[in-house]
From TrEMBL:
Transmembrane segments: none annotated. CDD domains: NAT_SF. Residues 3-130 form the N-acetyltransferase domain. This is N-acetyltransferase domain-containing protein. It holds the Pfam family Acetyltransf_10.
Amino acid sequence: MMVTIRPYETEDLAAITDLLKDESWTTLAADPSRFDQAMKGSSPALVALHNGEICGYIRCITDQVITLLVAELLVDGKLRGQGVGGKLLQAAHDLFPSTRMEMLATSTSKSYYEQKKFRPFYGFRKTYAE
C-alpha cells in the first residue's frame, strides 16, 4: 500500500478530527482549535496519506537528543494492519535517530507496540483537574 508521510498542516484538522471521533477520542476531538494548537506546538507532528486522503497521524514531543515521546498515534480503522502506523513511527524516529522512542499504551494497543519490539515500562497519568 502506498502511503505518503508529511508534516501536519492546519488544513488537515477536519480529517484528523473525524478520525478522532471515529475512535471515540472525545477529549481531543472536543476542541479542534486547541488540538490544532497542540499539533503546531509538537515536534514532529506528521500525517499519513493514502490516495490523497489523511489516514493517520502521529504527534510527538522531543528534546531532539535523548527522548522522543509519542503523544498520539492514530490510524484509520479500515487501514490498520497495513503498515501505516509503522511508517508514521519510523518517519518520526528518522527525524531524531539518536533518541529513544517512548509512549503510553492502552490495553488495546499494547500488543501492537510489543509486535514492533517496544519493551514495556511502568508509567502514570494525571490531568490538572485530578
